[in-house]
Write a structure and sequence with these properties.
Elements lengths: L6 E5 L5 H9 L4 E6 H6 L7 H19 L17 H17 L8 E3 L2 E2 L2 H6 L1 E7 L6 H7 L4 E6 L2 H9 L5 H21 L3 E5 H6 L1 H12 L9 E4 L3 E2 L5 E2 L8 E4 L12 H7 L3 H17 L4 H9 L1
Parallel strand pairs: 1-5, 1-6, 2-5, 6-7
Antiparallel strand pairs: 3-4, 8-11, 9-10
Length: about 300
Amino acid sequence: MLNRKPIFINGFSSGGTTILTNFLASHPDVCTVSEIHHLFKGHSLTDTALRVLMKCVFHDAPAMALSGQDFFSPRSISPRKKLSGLAKRFIDRVLYKEKLRSQNVFFNRFKHQDVEYSRQEIVNSRLVGKNVDGMIFTSDALTEMYPDATFIGLLRDGLAVCEGHLRKNRSAREIGFRYRVLGQKMQADARRFAHYQLIRFEDLLSDPVASVRLLYDHAGLEFDKLRDVRMQIRRVLDKDGNHRLRGGSEWDVVWSDLDGLASHFQKDVNRHQIKRLSAADRDAFLKEAGETMELLGYPTLSSTSEQAA
């Protein structure tokens, strides 16, 4: 395998994985490829239309042919088949090559504020990529590919996740079903795999410095090498239900020292989102996912009370 000691983040889309990715990518020995399925299916943020087509033809189509499945589909929330040796080597090479290609303003240009990576530093860096939604089911194959890999599962209050997905025109019942399946999968993997750590989105916001220390300790990264933390500007729901940018354009990279890190987050974003749920949507979601939320440490009664407040 070309990639040594890779780090994989698992979580829900609209669940805070961008924050977690940036925490890890702030370490000078780590470079990110962001969402792994974008390496195979393309993404409009960083790819031209031609580049998307090339990825589909030269990355995704061979991966599907070699694995006998749509391995990199985040919509497929079902177990993946075992990968052949040839499929493993092909996927590993794509991940490695795309890490080297991702030297742009969104990803691996700077290792510190105003200090650029050299190409050799990117070659030597540990890859961090995130797997959202159905991509969580790739952990079994990735563990077999990379016995030295680190996995981090990001949990979040399901009612806040539900509100975020309702804005994408999905039904509360469907969101609840997916939250249940994916949440139970992350919990099961954390019990099965030695190098799998569960962390809460809420903890990232309430004590980001402690969360960074925990993440680095789990991943075997030296905290003392961290000089500043990179963040990407995202729209955040405020108390009036507006999605606002807090300075700059969406996805712009900003840097913070550790002392000022907490000021970048809106700590009550969950409450703002939960408050926007209708009673019908809340009940439909909890009918599917309420038990899973409680297993993951999110009591549904307190969440419901918070929504009504």
